[in-house]
Amino acid sequence: MNIMNQIPNTKVIEPKILYYGTPVILLNTLNEDETVNISPISSSWALLNCIILGVGLGGKAIENLERHPECVINVPDPSLWENVEQLAPYTGKNPVPDYKRQNGFTYRKEKYDISKLTPIESKTVKPTRILECPIQIEARVKHIRIPDYSPNFAIVETQTVHVHAHTEIIIEEDHIDPNKWSPLIYNFRHYFGLGNHLGKTFRSEI
User: Fold this and answer.
1) pLDDT of 79-132, one tens digit each?
2) Which end of the chain is less congested by CB atoms within 10 angstroms, N or C?
3) 50-84 pLDDT, tens per residue?
4) Is 5 helix (H, G, I), strand (E, B) or coil?
5) Residues whose CB falls within 8 Å of the CB of residue 160, separated by 6 or more in sequence, listed in order
């Protein structure tokens, strides 16, 4: 058999975005008047207790993080996708930056009202947590870097302070049950949940 017949064809493409299946987070940051701004974010990853965020420049989230280096990283499940989408066309930045206005964004400050989500007091940091999100991570900003090759966003390094989880997804005290937890996934600007369980890595403790 000719092995070349088994190799999938590929083509070089230039997609506008590369959200190839990343968890959605709702990033809570502190406004000047100590109200809370909620920003949907689709670029994040974790390494031990360090969570890296990709945050666009010119918006309210990065402005707040630079002024007050604390945040809450709320992780919604698929049932909350419509709440997330309610936030999508709004910015807490006033006046609205030109690039956002040209892309259909308008100013709204009261993000909890827009999203129909519920604030709950954090244990250590000032921004509130989102009650409905099954995982809520209090964090402190340790470093903000703007890459010279892409000046439109910042790479924000945060350190986890506390992790809160809904009790129904907890197993064996400090573990999240992967059979009960599914993050909301942003897949090329479409919302998805996880598919069927396929297996586990050799390092899994449960």
Assistant:
1) 999 999 999 999 999 999 888 889 889 999 999 999 999 999 999 999 999 999
2) N
3) 999 999 999 999 999 999 999 999 999 999 999 99
4) helix
5) 49, 50, 51, 137, 138, 139
Closest CA to 70 of 149, 165, 141: 141
CA 41, 125, 134, 107 torsion-angle sign: negative
Which residues 6+ apart lie within 8 Å of 5 measured at CB? Answer: none
What is the phi/psi pair of residue 85, to 5°?
-65, -30
Angle at 189 between CA 41 and CA 145, to 5 degrees: 35
Helix and strand totals (H; E) in the chain:
4, 16
The sign one gets for the Cα dihedral 145, 115, 30, 135 is: negative
Note the pLDDT tens digit of each residue in 133-157. Answer: 999 999 999 999 999 998 899 999 9
> Cα dist. 1→4, 5, 7, 9, 144 in Å?
9, 8, 12, 17, 53
The distance in angstroms from the start CA to the end CA of the chain is 42
